[in-house]
Automatic annotation (TrEMBL):
Family: Belongs to the catalase family.
EC number: 1.11.1.6
Protein name as annotated: Catalase
Alphabetical list of PROSITE patterns matching this protein: CATALASE_2, CATALASE_3
Gene of this entry: katE
Keyword Metal-binding recorded: yes
SUPFAM superfamilies (alphabetical): Class I glutamine amidotransferase-like, Heme-dependent catalase-like
PANTHER family per the UniProt record, alphabetical: CATALASE, CATALASE-B
Length: 704
């Protein structure tokens, strides 16, 4: 049967029929049977003070539907945010794949993307230290292709059989249901300290990558080695990388913790507001293409998902860009009901023998059956392919398609043999030769657990190393059982004695002996440093589009300088907020009004990327008297943000104990209010540098 449903981005007839959008006019309220409802405020009673009646079908329908509104949340990645968009191929990439999105230059394929944290429940905070899911559904004319990846290119375990144990250890502990959205507890560290293959991914999660600034500012990775297969049936191996055009940026830990209180929806809001404002996030898709022969020569096994391929060995080939340009219309219908499945591939893409991937191919379809209530989840609009669906699968819970006719089998003659097998035009698995015994085991290279963890650590800048050590020390400080801490630090000795010493110092313990290694005779790694693994080592200028700038205001501010500065910031793409002791109108020194759209209570400085302290002595006096002002300024400083202080505003810096710019730190700028136009470009540059972790030595700390 032909799938007659309309494309995913058009309004469906059913939706239009049921539309009750706020802007709808002349539409009466009805029951789910379409019966107009005269009174939605009172249940049916026998007399005004009498008992409610069982016959009130309107009340019962409404309450029954409400009782069943919640569906099971995802077992992992429950907390997420999604958006629609498209992928555009830079060029035809048919040399290596017949996959539809890469068929020709400029080809556009619709996508739906869902970003997520892994551990927290559906209502948990966005800024937990965690890996982030990065799942992309491509609606191609050859069916849906789901690239279900993370913002980290490696995984904790090598074999899917360990996944339930990993997740049980990491999720809230089963006896008391704590902690929420955090790996900082005994069972997680017990498990990973007994599972040295986790070490490489631990390094990534403890690095700044575990606390991204924004979903729009993270990389994405397909993680596994996949195959690309071309029209002639020739195959190469491939790894998928998404790179954000806004750069890859992180929060600092204290900031992340405070944001989770100030705005638990921080990443969801950021994504939604950027798209709503027309600031569409973009990523470039780069592929690492390599042959089986090359793979054989590497010091690691490309089927081991705890290993990456350094870009020095196989550089990225850019093949296209992805743009997210439309927010969902309904969170539940789209973001919650979207069902990603690692099994969803299309002709031109195939699996490798990665044993982690093999388990995923089973797991995702299986989980959707219970999460979305049956085997027909592919009919939910956000999951429905644009490609026609024609087969003999029938019935089941929540079936939407009305399949006409007598025939639901193949082969048949009664329906003229339709639908018939596509033959060479259809999906055919790559005919990889297999001729080995069935075993439960793994190749020797899988036993090497530390070389790439060391590579990652050694590739970081001093600040990043410090953050990694601090994150390990923090997480392990939350572990009650000393033996677990000891075992984990003994594993870190194998990564780097420097790291182990820092973590041990942070925990007030001696550095233990190195944990014995499983792999006695490792192959020497090809490289010892890979700069793309660091967020800070390579220079990158990504501008200030969508960066949030707080300008403190009070009665008596110097109005003209703020107008000049904010105009320059907005022209450069930043979002400027006037933040007062309350929202609403303030009168500037010249009598002109300025409206605060945020208050220091509803929006503390952790929600902004940069801070401006205004001129105007009356305003500065009032701000100095306000209990919220010093924490606002001190946090902005502590979190390495660009700060600009005009004339009298510099007194607030003094009061906060912050000394102005030194050679080391070009991010605390002082200016006369008359120089607002001149200082704007230096301030924009300082904001574009994202964070300034190296503050002056005589201040609170050398590296933040
Ligand atoms: Fe998974 C969800 C990513 C290993 C089983 N996974 C899920 C999501 C992402 C990933 C991004 C959320 C998709 C969404 O937004 O709806 N998972 C990964 C990556 C892995 C990985 C990058 C390793 C490379 N996962 C993995 C294994 C298994 C699963 C080994 C099981 C054997 N993952 C699931 C799941 C989930 C899931 C239980 C929960 C909800 C869902 O699938 O739809 O089936």
């Amino acid at each position: 049967m032909e799938n007659t449903r309309k494309p995913i981005n058009t309004k469906r007839a059913l939706n239009e029929k049921c539309a009750t959008a706020p802007e709808a006019t002349s539409q009466v309220l009805t029951t789910n049977q379409g019966v107009p409802i005269s009174d939605n405020q009172h249940s049916l009673k026998a007399g005004l003070r009498g008992p409610s009646l069982l016959e009130d079908f309107i009340l019962r329908e409404k309450i029954t539907h409400f009782d069943h509104e919640r569906i099971p949340e995802r077992i992992v990645h429950a907390r997420g945010s999604g958006a629609h968009g498209y992928f555009e191929a830079y060029d035809a990439f048919t040399k290596h794949t017949r996959a539809a999105p890469f068929a020709e230059k400029g080809k556009v394929t619709p996508v739906f993307v869902r970003f997520s944290t892994v551990l927290g429940e559906r209502g948990s905070k966005d800024t937990a230290r965690d890996a982030r899911g990065f799942a992309v559904k491509f609606y191609t004319e050859e069916g849906n292709w789901d690239l279900v990846g993370n913002n980290i290119p490696v995984f904790f375990i090598q074999d899917a059989i360990k996944f339930p144990d990993l997740v049980h250890a990491a999720k809230p502990e089963p006896h008391h249901g704590m902690p929420q959205a955090a790996a900082a507890h005994d069972t997680f560290w017990d498990f990973v300290s007994l599972m040295p293959e986790s070490t490489h991914m631990l390094l990534w999660v403890m690095s700044d990558r575990g606390i991204p600034r924004s979903y729009r500012m993270m990389q994405g990775f397909g993680v596994h080695t996949f195959r690309l297969v071309n029209e002639q049936g020739a195959s190469v191996f491939c790894k998928f990388h998404w790179r954000p055009f806004l750069g890859t940026h992180a929060l600092v830990w204290d900031e992340a913790v405070k944001i989770s209180g100030a705005d638990p929806d921080f990443h969801r809001r950021d994504l939604w507001e950027a798209i709503a404002a027309g600031e569409f996030p973009e990523w470039e898709l780069g592929l690492q293409i390599f042959t089986e022969e090359q793979a054989e020569s590497f010091s690691f096994d490309v089927l081991d998902a705890t290993k990456l391929i350094p870009e020095e060995l196989v550089p990225l080939t850019p093949v296209g860009r992805m743009v997210l340009n439309r927010n969902p219309e309904n969170f539940f219908a789209e973001t919650e009901q979207v069902a990603f499945c690692a099994a969803h591939i299309i002709p031109g893409i195939d699996f490798s023998n990665d044993p982690l991937l093999a388990g995923r191919i089973h797991s995702y379809v299986d989980t959707q059956i219970s999460r979305l209530g049956g085997p027909n989840f592919h009919e939910i609009p956000v999951n429905a392919p644009l490609a026609a669906v024609r087969n003999n699968q029938r019935d089941g819970m929540h079936r939407q398609a009305i399949n006409p006719g007598q025939v639901a089998y193949e082969p048949n003659s009664l329906a003229g043999g339709c639908p018939f097998q596509a033959g060479a035009a259809g999906f055919a698995s790559f005919p990889q030769t297999t001729a080995e015994d069935k075993v439960r085991g793994k190749p020797e290279k899988f036993n090497e657990h530390y070389a790439q963890a060391t590579l990652f650590f050694n590739s970081q800048t001093a600040v990043e190393k410090k953050h990694i050590a601090a994150a390990f020390a923090f997480e392990l400080s939350m572990v009650a059982v000393a033996d677990i801490r000891q075992r984990m630090v003994s594993s870190l000795v194998n990564v780097s004695p420097e790291l182990a010493a820092d973590v041990a110092a942070g925990l007030g313990m001696a550095v233990p002996l190195a944990m014995p290694k499983v792999c006695r005779d490792p192959v020497a790694p090809e490289i010892t440093v890979s700069l793309p693994l660091s967020l800070m080592a390579l220079p990158g200028e990504c501008g200030i589009r969508t960066r949030q700038v707080a300008i403190l205001v009070e009665h008596g501010v110097h109005h003209a300088s703020l107008v000049t500065l904010s105009t320059a910031l907005v022209d450069a793409g930043a979002v400027v907020h006037f933040v007062g002791p309350r929202i609403g109108l303030f009168t500037g020194a010249n009598g002109a009004d300025i409206t605060a759209n945020k208050s220091m209570q509803n929006s503390p400085s952790v929600l902004f990327d940069a801070l401006v302290l205004p001129d105007g002595s009356e305003a500065i006096q009032a701000l100095a008297d306000n209990v919220d002002t010093m924490p606002f300024i001190k946090d902005a400083f502590r979190h390495g943000k660009a700060i600009l202080a005009f004339s009298a505003g510099q007194e607030l810096l003094d009061m906060a104990g912050i000394e102005p710019t030194t050679d080391k730190d070009k991010s605390i700028l002082l200016a006369e209010s008359t120089d607002a136009a001149e200082i704007a470009s230096a301030f924009i540059k300082a904001i574009a540098a994202h964070r300034h972790p190296t503050r002056a030595k005589n201040q609170r700390d050398e590296m933040l």
